[in-house]
Amino acid sequence: MPNIKLSHVKKTFPNGFEVVKDFNMEITDGEFVVFLGPSGSGKSTVLRMVAGLEEPSGGEIRIDGKRLEEIPPKERSMAMLFQNYAVYPKLTVYENIGFGLRQRGVAEEVIDEKVRLIANLLEVADLLKKKPRSLTASQRQRVALARALIYDPQILVMDEPFANMEENVRPRISKRVAEIHAQMKGIVMLVTHNLPIGLRLADRVVMMKLGEVHQIGTPSEVYDQPASLFVADFIGDPK
Ligand code: ADP
Ligand code: MG
Which of 13, 119, 121, 144 is the most exposed place for a label (fewest CB within 10 A)? Predict the structure, then answer.
């Protein structure tokens, strides 16, 4: 069971901009952590650092006690979904979803079964033979989500996975993500602009603004006992 520990993690860009100032958090097995806050808060950057796409300028990130940079990428049981991680245009939806498993040499029958299962859950089962360019943005986003979820990773990092989805599919798909998480029992770190969905999915919420953490707590803690005016405003007046 994975454990992620971020200690005094900082990220400063070469122009001197401190996008993440001093991030401290321990995430334990099975936790679903949702990052909330206005854009420019550093949420994506925290996720990108955990995913190994961006190097911290200070502090350290440990997974199961080991420093992230000492774990070879192949040994990290991690799947990620970022806005700029587009689906492969030349592969069919079926091939896209099974891509990672195929890379890992998983048997074709197992891939087939898993692809169909996840495609059903994310409502793309009727699109398996299509190429991404003929899909809507919402459908493409669900294919990208399927591709990340199919691994059964111990750590799942997702930046705005519901962003391009239509209002009518979003609640269902987010519910499926919760169900998949309940089965995988790993860690999920997710950024979303959708406050109701974020609060519903989260075991804990991280409230960020301008590179600083204002509060880390359960949805009811941040709702009932906001640590700052910013948190209170962002979550909304309960009464
Ligand atoms: P969030 O996900 O909360 O919107 P980000 O982690 O994406 O925040 O951080 C965005 C901030 O970092 C923005 O203010 C952006 O201008 C700045 N930023 C991102 N990349 C760079 C870069 N390479 N150099 C300087 N500033 C950057
Ligand atoms: Mg972002």
Answer: 13
Ligand 2 centre distance from Cα of residue 107 (Å): 36
What tens digit of pLDDT does each residue of 107-123 get? 999 999 999 999 999 99
Residue 104 has pLDDT above 50, yes or no: yes
Ligand 1 surroundings by CB, under 6 angstroms? 13, 15, 17, 19, 37, 39-45
Helix (H) or strand (E) run with residue 213 in it = strand 212-217
Q: Which ipTM value was assigned to this complex?
A: 0.95
Contact in structure between 198 and 171 (CB atoms under 8 Å): no
pTM of the predicted structure, to 2 decimals: 0.93
Q: How far apart are CA 187 and CA 80, in angstroms?
A: 12
pLDDT score of 85: 60
CA trace torsion 80, 85, 87, 91 (10° rounding) = -90
